C-alpha cells in the first residue's frame, strides 16, 4: 500500500522557518517526480514546488521563489520543503504528491500526481 506522510508542521511568526518532510512507503521515490501543493482555507489547492526524479529539475511557484527550497534524499525515500521568510499568506495545509511513473521533468498540475499525503499544517502569524 502506497503511503506518503508529511511532517514538520508548525505555528511560527512571520519571518520564521520550517522544514517539511514527505516520507514514502510502498513505493520508491528514486524514479518519480514529487511535488508540494498547499491549500489555504477557502481556496483551491495550489502548486508550490516540484522536483524531478533525479533532482535535475526543480520548479517553484512565483509566490515562493527565493524563500522555499525543495530537495530529495532517495536513500531515505524522503523529499523536503525548506520554507524560509514565512509570511501570513503562507498559512495553509501543505501536501506532498508523487507521480505514478517515471517522467523526465516534474509538473505543476495536480492531475500529474497519482499519490497524495494527508497534509501538514503551517500557520504563520504576523
Explain what you see.
This protein is mainly β and 126 residues long. Helices cover 0% and strands 47% of the residues. It has strands spanning 3-7, 10-13, 18-25, 34-39, 46-51, 58-60, 68-73, 78-83, 92-98, 115-116, 120-125. The strands form two sheets. Strands 2, 4, 5, 6, 9, 10 and 11 form a seven-stranded mixed beta sheet that branches. Strands 1-3-8-7 form a four-stranded antiparallel beta sheet, with no helix packed on it. A hairpin with a 4-residue loop joins β7 and β8. The radius of gyration is 13 Å and the shape is globular. The mean pLDDT is 96.
Please describe the structure with a list of short key phrases separated by commas or semicolons.
mainly beta, 11 strands, 7-stranded mixed beta sheet, 4-stranded antiparallel beta sheet, 0% helix, 126 residues
Main beta-sheet annotation: 7 strands, mixed
Bin the helical content: under 10%
Strands, total number = 11
Question: Globular, elongated, flat, extended or rod-shaped: what is the shape?
Answer: globular
Gyration radius over CA: 13 Å
Q: What is the first-to-last residue Cα distance?
A: 40 Å
Helix/strand-derived category reads mainly beta
Q: Uncertain segments of ≥5 residues (pLDDT<50)?
A: none
Count of helical regions: 0
Quick recap of the structure?
With 126 residues, this protein is an all-beta fold. Helices cover 0% and strands 47% of the residues. It has strands spanning 3-7, 10-13, 18-25, 34-39, 46-51, 58-60, 68-73, 78-83, 92-98, 115-116, 120-125.
